[in-house]
Amino acid sequence: MEPKYRKSNWALAATLMGFIFSSTATSAAEISLKVGTSWNDKFPMKEMLKDVLKPMMEKHSNGRLTLDIHMAKSLCSEKTCVEQVKLGQTDMGTASVANYGGFSKTFEVLTLPYIFKSDAAAKKVLDGFLFDELNKTALSKDKLKVIAIVPLLGFRNLETNVGVIKTPKDLKGVKIRVTKSPLDGALLRSWGAVATPVAWAETYDAVQQKVVRGLYIQKPVHAMMKFFEVSPYVTLTGGAWTPMIIFMDLKRFEKLPGWAQSAVDAAAADLRAKAFDIDARYAGKMGAKNAAKVNYYQPNEAEMAKWRAAAAKSWVVGRKMDLYDTGLAQRILEAQGGLDGMIAALKKEGAL
Asked: CB 3.0–4.6 Å: which of 29, 79, 177, 193 could bond 188 by disulfide?
């Protein structure tokens, strides 16, 4: 017969080994979802994915679900992220509305000029009804589940190397770089510019060599990418809001066990609650960089009225191309309050 102390030691050892193996088994996630984005760590998408979505998924799943994050085009670019998610080659992706527009019109309404008064207004409407409405459409038409619709450094502004631009008449005949988005080109043409598509990688050289005389991007991007060196005059027109979409293939989501679906949904809600504050912090920090080297012009209210009025023509182009639902667009404007005059003007123009 073994001494009693030996039995106790064996029992203790067995208990400890069981604890160790149990801890090891639960420390590794059961499911890892792969997400790709074209943005690098200098942009707010880094914090949204790495510091919010990933830890929140792990928290809500008790460590059973995690996110494998691939930044800076290491997995996919804007366009290929959509393709790869649809083909089941990756689980999640990010894309701007402009790039997503090559696959679906679902989110085009978000980029109508002056559809939102501010980031705060955009968040209010998205939280109120719009996110659920757009996600419902994406689920039924695109077979994609929207994780979040997040801002990307605010609204676009007009940057040129031709001097101070105060109203649209000052822009007449000036070549401005635009994306391939039909609304982007229509907006610049409505302001009198010669809209000229240029690939992003070629834009700096094109402006420097005066092939085009300016571009239309967010203030923080202009500052960070040193476009002030070739287009030092910035008119704070605002207009086009710049949203990003984080999405997942619907079939992939539906294959997840119930507990994982719940964790994804809870983490997505956490991200949507924090995304605008994260973006505003990055926008402030990035916009301040090199700001002293830029000549900013803020149009007065009478001048802003001219920018807004001319922009209504681009809405008509979008309507003729069936890029947005007029009822939904009007509902977005009404939800913000104080835009009755704009709604009336758009109706008169034939945009609503």
From this structure: 193
- Partnered with residue 149 across adjacent β-strands are 245
CATH number of the domain within which 52 lies: 3.40.190.170
- Tell me the pLDDT tens digit for each residue of 247-283: 999 999 999 999 999 999 999 999 999 999 999 999 9
Residue 161 class from Cβ within 10 Å (0-12 exposed, 13-18 middle, 19+ buried)? Answer: middle
Q: Is residue 297 part of a domain?
A: yes
Which tokens is 306 given? 């001219």
Q: What is the pLDDT of residues 119-166, one digit of tens each?
A: 999 999 999 999 999 999 999 999 999 999 999 999 999 999 999 999
The DSSP H or E segment spanning 271 is helix 258-288
Asked whether the beta carbons of 118 and 236 are under 8 A apart, the reply is no
Identify whether 17 is part of a domain: no
- Give the domain extent around 176: 30-349
Tell me phi and psi for residue 21, to 5 degrees: -65, -35
Who contacts 111 (Cβ-Cβ below 8 Å, separation ≥6)?
97, 98, 181, 183, 184, 240, 241, 242, 243
Let me know: does 218 contact 243? Beta carbons within 8 Å.
no
Report how many domains make up the chain.
1
